Amino acid sequence: MRHLKIKLFLLSFFWVLVINAQERKLVWEENFDGTQLNKKSWNFERGDGCPNLCGWGNAEKQRYTKKNHRLKDGFLTINILKEGTNYTSTRITTKGKHRFKYGYVEIRAKLPTGKGIWPAFWMLGKNIKKVGWPTCGEIDILEYVGKEPNTIYTSLHTKASHGNTINSKKTKIENIEEGFHVYAIDWTKEKIAFYIDHKLVYTFQPKDKNKETWPFKQPFYLILNAAVGGNFGGPEIDDSIFPQEFVIDYIRVYK
Known about the structure:
The chain is mainly beta.
């Protein structure tokens, strides 16, 4: 009887996934085929953020380059290195090339590990140049900091929170660092729901939706990076962990 219940549960879970997939329409995907990033989809952001945003606004220690990554066998690998006294990594965005308003956005990725590591997959409002941050809004689909093993952050930043990580959920998942996992949001006019491996972990749904609490009624673009140190990654960096790799299998956007 117990085995029958387990089989029925797995069957029902499978059909829920099938139904959800059928209801959604794939509107954009990146499978990282080939040997180079598609310039029609991605921009490189380079340097240390200076002079306008030194430390990328978070006192981060790394410099971003166009060399700290590779595409092979359908995977994008961001290499996080210690080179002499410098830390190097890669940061790419779809700004000005692909932007999305509402939908289901997911990434399948394997995390780097170690104290000082801070990989992320996130989104910024397209009007950031006009209104600035945090008024433009920020959606953090995946954030991991090596100083807190087995923990994933899913967060939102708004003007109402003064940019602070208030609208956030810290989810403990044993051995999240092992293998690949899927991180996603289901973004509608009413709410943003966050998922890890298809399990709901956090929902943001303010009753009063205005420019300060809900900047999420406009298109957002994607950002993918791996930082080192900083206000969130932590002031302590374990240099013995390098090199590290942030490996991405795919990114998909459904409507």
